Amino acid sequence: MKLISTGLVLAAALLVLPYYSVSAAGLSSALDPQEQAIAAAVVARESQALALLEQTVNINSGTKNLAGVRAVGRVFDSAFTELGFATQWIEGAGFERAGHLVASYGSTGARLLLIGHLDTVFAADSPFQDWERIDEHHVRGPGITDMKGGNVVMILALTALKDAGLLDAVQVRVVLTGDEESRGRPMDTANRALIEAAVWADYAIGFEVGDGDPATAVVSRRSAGNWTLEVSGKPAHSSQIFRDDIGYGAIFESARILNTWRDALAAVPNLTFNPGRVIGGTQISTDASGDRGTAFGKNNVIAQTVRVSGGIRADSPQQLDMAIEQMAAIVSESLPHTQANFTFTPGYPPMARTQGNLDLLARYTAISQALGYGEVVPVDPRRAGAADISFAAEHVRGAIDGLGLMGTGGHTIDETADIRTLKQQAQRAALLFYQLAQDANEANENR
User: Fold this and answer.
1) Is the dihedral of CA 344, 346, 348, 351 positive or negative?
2) At what angle do helices 149-163 and 421-445 cross, to 10 degrees?
3) Measuring CA to CA, how many Å separate 417 from each of 51, 425, 427?
4) Hey, which residues does 170 pair with through a beta bridge?
5) Fewer CB within a 10 Å sphere, N or C end of the chain?
6) Do residues 308 and 286 make contact, with C-beta atoms less than 8 angstroms apart?
7) What is the pLDDT of residues 84-133, one digit of tens each?
8) 3-class DSSP assignment, residue 304
9) Residue 13 phi/psi, 5° resolution?
10) Distance (Å, rounded) from C-alpha 379 to C-alpha 66?
11) C-alpha 203: how far from its chain's center?
12) Cα dist. 400→207, 351, 372 in Å?
């Protein structure tokens, strides 16, 4: 395999925080015999999992490369079938994407929803296409952490449970979406399989990379929605601006609104909103996507129209509702002879920080400590973007995310995995599955 000597890539890869190594022979006495068997099974299957990871990284699966997403789906379909899962491909034509892979196992025990995705941000014509070894512990490749590595962590953990003879104690439904990086529309159609699985489940466990630090996991994620501000003013010769019968024009009104939003809301913890595009003048137009536009205007004419579009993120439904309400109120206080219309388009909902999520994290960190990997703390919501689990979290007792393969440089051509964390993450996940199954069994026995 080709070695890379690029200093920037290597430096980025080495930013991953140190992790604690535990050999199969040196497993902690804090683990019971079955837990030790599970952890040892992960070690025995590690090389097989790395081969699966390399195979999928080398298949381009940018969201709009529908054939590539389906190809990656077929590889993971085979892996789940070998484990005894029943698999189903949810065709994506109805939401303009490749589709989703759903895999199901078991009929008794705790109901676990495991979440991943098949697509990446790298288009079919991206120059970044291949698995490339940097050194003994680091590999660079498109989607290696976001999130083909997370899918492989999931499969390795489930394989270890089966090898230890314990997979039948749990019910599992896996949803690997094909549109996480660019959501299909209509969204209710795109999300149907994921939400149906969440309604069925007791717990939702996501295998995104989080912030790339193995000492953290995600118990809350901020929402990701969009807004549009359309402003109109009274056109006239620029020498007449500010007159009582002329007013201030569309550009001054849009500036007032944006700055007042900033004054009112910029200090709210974990709330962010960003005007990504502003088009203004006498006449404006945008393309079908809304991402490109043109404007005509003259310095001696008061601007008649402005269109601003942007995004907003909040850490709870209540915070989002508060922000939208305040933004709309500010819009309604128009300067003379101007009018403005504000619209909000929901996207990913917030994954709120709940006691159920914190309880799952407490269990996960105890497992990590028993394995010798140390404490796991919550990711700062500002350091983790939106993800599929946000659609599932409100339907389950508890949700946790960020349990995937760790590394740096996600969404860039320097996306690099620390492959030492494959074993670590799979051992922690497998023991979490096992302990949740034990909890359910004990609860049934006590009824």
Assistant:
1) positive
2) 50
3) 14, 12, 17
4) 110
5) C
6) no
7) 999 999 999 999 999 999 999 999 999 999 999 999 999 999 999 999 99
8) coil
9) -65, -40
10) 32
11) 17
12) 9, 10, 20
